[in-house]
Each structure stands twice: as structure tokens, then as C-alpha cells.
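Shall we go through a protein fold together, starting from nothing but its sequence? Please make up or recall a protein chain and show it to me in full. Go ahead whenever you are ready, and we will take it from there.
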Amino acid sequence: MTFLIIGGSGLLGRELVRQRGGRATTATDSRSLDIRRRDDVFALFERLRPAVAVNAAYRQDDWAITADGAATVAAAAARTGTRLVHVSSDAIFGGRPEPYDEDSLPGPTSAYGAAKAAAETAVRGLTPDAVIARTSLIIGDGDSPQERLVHALATGVRDGALFTDDIRCPVHVTDLAAAILELAADPGRHGVHHLAGPDAISRHRLGVLVARRDGLDETRLRPALRAETALPGGREVRLDSTRTTAGLRTRLRGPGEFLILNAGPPEPIVRG
């Protein structure tokens, strides 16, 4: 089975490649494939005729990549009969105390969230059998944007603060990649699926846990309130993944499990 990973140089893309173990897998990055170029995307799909494609490509400040590019990938998948898994984000929601499940309607309050919501609309319209995998903050073993920010703040390389009222449901990249591959392999799965960790946590608390794991000075992580800023996007965005994960063998862990002092790189936990 030919497997195509678009956005293969990112944190999630690299982990998908690793877990595939080289089995008939092609991964692209922005240098090898510009998904803003429709002809190039269609040519790649025609040449590879992949059985499955995972679109993990995005750029927060670029509508053409995040929204239009996703639509182009979906159109190419539809033409070649490729099963598509599109990676989306909790940024499509505007924030509220109650969790969002798979039936919740998008209500973005940022340009990035709007681009992600538009991408979902295009994917659902062009490839009704596709999986749309919404996720939250993706954490790795020191190599995610959130972890790099914590290191920069805790070592004084960068000045800034972490919000105590900005709530998300972080997930470890190994768990997320395993769950995506499981969904990709199940032709009975389609539509929206939530793949986030079970624990709602503030960005500041998450930073403290990262600092403790990595032996950094957590007292240098200054708390602040996002409500006192003009930053766009929702503050409290909790993804309810209960429905999706009930049917998965892969268990999505929260940061209380995977951010353990001196622990080695975790592997995804698979049930039974």
C-alpha cells in the first residue's frame, strides 16, 4: 500500500514517517512539494497513485497553504481515489468552558482558525469519505514549538509569559501519529474525529511540567492572562475525544502521563 505524507518534515509528519518504518512511504516537505501549486500536487498524485494520503501541512500565517492547499490535496485525492486523512486543529473553535465534541460547529476567532475551518469544508465537500482528524497542542520530546518556547523562557533566551487562562488538551506526537495511522487503515472511518489528550490544562501549567521534566527553572515561567491581551483565538478550547478513542486500540495520554521526569521517549500505548 503506497502511503503519502504531505508535510513530512514537521513534528507530526516526521513521527508518521518513523512509525511507517519505510514501508512504501513517500513524504514531502515545502521544498519537494508546494501545495499552493495545483498542477504539481495533481502530478504527484497521478504519479504515485497512493492508497492513503495524510495531509499534515499547514502554515499559521498563510491561507494559501492551510486552506487552499488543503482543498487542492482533497481534489487530487478525489481524482485518484486516494483515501485522505486531513489533520485539523482545535483552532476552529472560539472557546467556551464546555468541551467540543465531533458534532460541535466551528466558530473560529482567528485567521488561522478560519483557514482550518475552510480546509475542513473543502475536504468534506470534495472527499466525503475522508477522515478529518482534529487535534490540540502536539508535544514531543523537546522538539515541539511549545517545548522550545518553554526552554527559551526558562533559560532567559526569550522574554515573555505563559497564559494561565489559555486551556488546551495536549497530546503526545507518538500517540497522535499512531491514532492517525489506525484511522487511515480503517475504511469504515470517515468524517470528523477528535484526537486530543484527556486532560485540559493551561499553557502555563504545561510549561511547568515541561520544565520539571527537562530540569529547567520553572520559576522563570512568568504567568499571565490571555484575557488581558488582544490576541485572537479562543481561550478555553477543550476537545472531547471520547467518541473517537472508544473505537481505537491506541490510547491518547495526557501530559500528566507523558511528561515524566527522566522518562525516555514514550511509545504509544495500544490496547489489547
Notes: The chain has nine helices and 14 strands. Residues 45 and 76 are 6 Å apart (CA to CA).
